[in-house]
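INFO batch 0412 | record 1 of 1 | parsing
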Amino acid sequence: MPKPDLTTLLLAFREENRIKGKGALAVVLHVSRYARENGLPLNRARLVTEGSGQVLGLGKARVQTILKDYGIAQVLAEEGGRTSRGSLGTMQTYVAFLNDLHDKHVADLGFVEAWWIDRVKEHFSAKPFKLRFDAAKGFQAIIADLLAQALKRQRESTGTMYQGAVLQHLVGAKLELALPQLDITHNGASVADAFSDRAGDFVIDDSIIHITTSPGEAVIRKCQRNLDAGAKPIILTLAEGVTVVKVLAENTGIAGRIDIMDAEQFLAANLHELSLFKASARPDTLGKLVDTYNRIVSENETDPSLRIEIG
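INFO prediction complete | emitting tokens
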């Protein structure tokens, strides 16, 4: 039996380091199993790949093998946490934590690994976002509330950009509903353009849509490449990001050549059109949006908590 304070120490470590997202959970599972295989204390330098600065041995196959030992078939992270932001730092912090447990003679690695497995089960059973339909509120306010929920969860969980993922798939769902004659291609929000050869988040004929909640020079460089290729880039961002993008576009000499829009307004305007501007049609339109969004999430994401529930 583990000493009584081990659970308390694990809880404190999890909260202090915000080990809640799929990438961070993948890291601690991998390192926990590595510790069981190699013993404590660990040398964190041996868990870093040469040159690339990634966590050695971490990947989808490794994580799924561990989950399989506990009867879990669901995919935790498509990249196994390997490309998640902060994975290397999480590994280093966790190694120090395990070594400290070892020094205190409370390191029961079997218990530790099983404890993290329980956290993975909690992750898979996490509650979806809640779309609160209020007839007195406009579409834009309803969308803003969803994005606010996503931002709150993002701040509580290191490494997972929930707000960007929700916005991307809301736009994708809206495009499907508005353009049923077209085949809209969707991608997981964590799959960067550079890794997938994508010109942007959505490519529709010669128009390239980029979705960002934190606009910077990177999205402007993507737009420049789109322009060089003869395409027409469109940036959808949050209201506070519109001015930022306009300044960046002006500074790089492409202002006037790209369309920059408030994503909430973009979505709301199309939802009104889909409802034929009838108040009575708004609940049905939102229902279709959520159904389409949830299907896209189930097909392209490994995190079921990204789903939306109407309540």
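INFO post-check: The first strand starts at residue 129 and ends at 131.
INFO record closed
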